[in-house]
Amino acid sequence: MRSNLPVADFLSSNIPRGVRGARSPPSAAVPHGAAFPALPLHGWHPTKTPMRLLFLGDVVGRAGRSVVAGRLPKLRADWGLDFVVVNGENASSGAGLTGEHAKLLLAAGADCLTLGDHAFDQKDMLTYIETEPRIIRPLNFARQAPGKGYRVFGAKDGRKVLVLQALGQVFMKRPFDDPFSAVEAVLKSHPLGGMASATILDFHAEATSEKMAMGHWCDGRVSLCVGTHTHVPTGDAQILTAGSAYLTDAGMCGDYNSVIGMDRQEPLRRFVTGMAKGRFEPANGPATLSGVYVETDDRTGIATRVVMVRLGGRLQESQP
Ligand SMILES: [Fe+2]
Ligand SMILES: [Fe+2]
User: By the 8 A CB rule, do 216 and 23 touch?
Assistant: First the structure.
C-alpha cells in the first residue's frame, strides 16, 4: 500500500533506527544488565588501522582479464588491501564468466567475484557457482537461479565482510524483482558494525537515478554502495551523509577505445544502419583498471575515505 506521507517523511520514517547519526562516535559499552544510559566515549577517534577495500568494475574480455591479472597482485601489496571485490560478469568473451576465468581473477587477488544480468551467459556458471562460494550473483536475479546473492567472508584479523549484489529495474532488458526490499532484508539481518565489519553492495543497474536512490537508501548501513553495469565510470565518488562511500558506476576493466568494451565496428554498424552483421567482440587494446578504493572505520564499518581508481589504458589516472 502507498504511504500518504510526503517523500521526506516517508523516507525518514523508513530509515532504521541508528542509521541517522551513524557518523557520531560510538557509545561506551554498557555492562550487561546495567540500568543506566550509554555515555559517549571520550577521546573517540576512527581506528588507526582502517580496513582498505578495493572494488573493480565489470571485467570485459581478454583485455580486462589481463589488466586485472597484471596489476591486482601488486596493488594488493602496495595499497595494503584487506578485501577486493571484482565484477566478472563480462570477463568471458564479453558476456558471462566461465569457471576458468573465475579462477584466474581469484588467483590475481580477488576475494569475491560478483556477476550481473549476464551472470549465466556462460552455461558453465550454472554449475560452477555452486562449487565456488566466492562468486555471488544478484539477489533478485530469479528465484530458481543457482548460487547466492550475498555472503559473509572472513578477512584479515578475523574481520567479516558482507558482499551483496542486486539488479536494478529501470531500463534493464528483463524485469527483476524489487532490489530495495531484497537489499533491505539482507542488511537487516547483517548490521554494519555488528555482524559485518564492512559491507559492500554492488548495485548492477542502468539508471543513474535508481543507483543514487539505492545509495541513499543504504546510507549508514553499508561501507560502500557502488554501481556497475554501464561500463563507464562516473566522477561522483563521495561519502554520503550517514557515512557510506558511494560511486554511481565503477566503470569497466577493459579497453575504453570501444563501445562499452566491445570492438567499435559492429555496435557502430547497428546504431548507424539499424542492421546487425556480426557478433559483438570485446575490444582488445590496452585496458584501464577501473573501480573505487575505500577506507573504513573498523568499529563502525563506516567509510572514512573514498577514491576513484583508474590505472592504465586511455583514461586519466586516479589512485589513492
Ligand atoms: Fe550488466
Ligand atoms: Fe557489464
Answer: no
